[in-house]
Amino acid sequence: MTEKETVDPQLQDFILAETQKQRFQVLVHGLTDTCWETCMGRPSTRLDSKTETCIMNCVERFIDATTFITRRLMNTTKYRSEAPLEFQ
């Protein structure tokens, strides 16, 4: 038996799901840090409208950038799989 045949498919699915959760948590943590540092001046009991707008824009730009990068990587991977490099 090869190693792939002995691995439990449910275990593989669980590991994949947990890995995706971890990546999402890292992404959210990075988003929180970036937007906090960019937008928060002096913390207070309420957000003023300027800070609230800054945080909303920061989150939207972060999501836009992440989506753009993800799509670019997927397209690059797809292109490479359709037309593998040939070495001469």
TrEMBL record:
<keyword id="KW-0472">Membrane</keyword>
<dbReference type="InterPro" id="IPR004217">
    <property type="entry name" value="Tim10-like"/>
</dbReference>
<keyword id="KW-0999">Mitochondrion inner membrane</keyword>
<dbReference type="InterPro" id="IPR035427">
    <property type="entry name" value="Tim10-like_dom_sf"/>
</dbReference>
<keyword id="KW-0813">Transport</keyword>
<protein>
    <recommendedName>
        <fullName>Mitochondrial import inner membrane translocase subunit</fullName>
    </recommendedName>
</protein>
<comment type="function">
    <text>Mitochondrial intermembrane chaperone that participates in the import and insertion of some multi-pass transmembrane proteins into the mitochondrial inner membrane. Also required for the transfer of beta-barrel precursors from the TOM complex to the sorting and assembly machinery (SAM complex) of the outer membrane. Acts as a chaperone-like protein that protects the hydrophobic precursors from aggregation and guide them through the mitochondrial intermembrane space.</text>
</comment>
<keyword id="KW-1015">Disulfide bond</keyword>
<comment type="subunit">
    <text>Heterohexamer.</text>
</comment>
<dbReference type="GO" id="GO:0015031">
    <property type="term" value="P:protein transport"/>
</dbReference>
<keyword id="KW-0496">Mitochondrion</keyword>
<comment type="similarity">
    <text>Belongs to the small Tim family.</text>
</comment>
<dbReference type="GO" id="GO:0005743">
    <property type="term" value="C:mitochondrial inner membrane"/>
</dbReference>
<keyword id="KW-0653">Protein transport</keyword>
<keyword id="KW-0811">Translocation</keyword>
<feature type="domain" description="Tim10-like">
    <location>
        <begin position="14"/>
        <end position="74"/>
    </location>
</feature>
<dbReference type="Pfam" id="PF02953">
    <property type="entry name" value="zf-Tim10_DDP"/>
</dbReference>
<keyword id="KW-0143">Chaperone</keyword>
